[in-house]
Amino acid sequence: MLVAVVAVLTSCDSSQPAKPTTDLVVPEIYDSALWSINTIEEYQIRANLDALLGLLKSARKVDVTLTSSQLMQAYQPLMQYTIPSEVDFIGQFLENAAIASGKLHTGSAEPTDGTVGGVYGGYLFDRYGRDVDEFVQKSLFATMLYYQATLRSSGVVLPRTVDQIVALFGANPTFPNGSAKAAQKDVFSANYAARRDKNDGNGFYSRFKKAALTARAAAEKPEVYGNELKNALKEMLLIWEKSQMATAINYSYLTITTLSATQVDDVARGKAMHTFAEAAGIIRGWKSVPPSSRMITDATLDELTQLLLISDANNPTCYKFWLEPALYLNRLEQVTKKLQTVYGFSDAEMEDFKTNWVSAQSR
Fold first, then answer.
1. CA dist., res. 105 & res. 143, Å (int)
2. Radius of gyration (C-alpha) of the chain in whole angstroms
3. Contact at 8 Å (CB) between 282 and 247?
């Protein structure tokens, strides 16, 4: 079945695409004929990122010790794709991971001069209680994968360019919407977008798919369907951003719920520190994305990082959230409300963000 999209021209200027004689026809199935060839570089980026994150996750066991040279060697192939200003931040976190690996962390006390971090509650934390895996992972989702997508969308966009953006998002031509049963599974940002999607055709993942189908069809004749192409690419990037911030909201809620319990043992506290890092890592990562490439402003991101007590990367005080939750959890509430305001999320959507829909629907 094919869907027709009406072409709309905003100007009669000769630089605008020619007025189409027919509507843009958008297929319901993504053209995958040249997918493998078109996305060789992007799949190598994905494989290298997976290897780096796998190395970091291995150190969640206290009997695993990593070296900084080992981690930097794993990151080296990804440096050229990362926003230059972010490379030192990633390097510092990898150094922190090496120092903390093979040790035990005390998550119930403030860091002292002798604190170096370590394994706690099943996760690896630096001396301030930041989950190093999550801060690195969520930063690179924004400052490498999304950043590379913006670079591709800003140049000459051909069908293969759209394939590359979809691959960087973490999806594939089958668009399985997070299904664990799929032969080709979603990864990275696409996987998180699927968790925020109720599979009713209106969620972030479904809308990204529709925009990608439109963009690829328009890219076949950009001289005619340039406006459709431009709008579809813009929609893909905006949905990517919104789905990541909806995920930050989800993890903020989880952190609040866990730390609000009457009894919080080491396992629960470690889980809360981990979910906090998921949310904080997303927000901090997007702060490094060029302002022209995102909807959220620098001013708002500054407010959010201050609320999360991570604005000073070298001396954060985010450990106060799990050491004194009664005094600090309201700051996470403020984070969710600010994000709701920025992106215009409805109250119903905010409630939906509390659920991992892939798990809830056993997809």
1. 29
2. 21
3. yes
Task: Please give the Cα distance from 311 to 328 (Å, whole number).
Answer: 15
Beta strands in 8-94 (DSSP E): 24-27
- Write out pLDDT tens, residues 283-335: 999 999 999 999 999 999 999 999 999 999 999 999 999 999 999 999 999 99
Q: Which pTM value belongs to this model?
A: 0.93
**SS3 state of residue 2:** strand
- Please give the Cα distance from 323 to 105 (Å, whole number): 14
Vertex 198 angle, CA 196 and 267, to 5°:
45
Residue type for position 323: L
The predicted-structure confidence for 45-66, as pLDDT tens digits, reads as follows 999 999 999 999 999 999 999 9
Q: What angle do CA 203, 272, 306 make, to 5 degrees?
A: 80
Give the Cβ contact number of residue 6 at 10 Å: 8
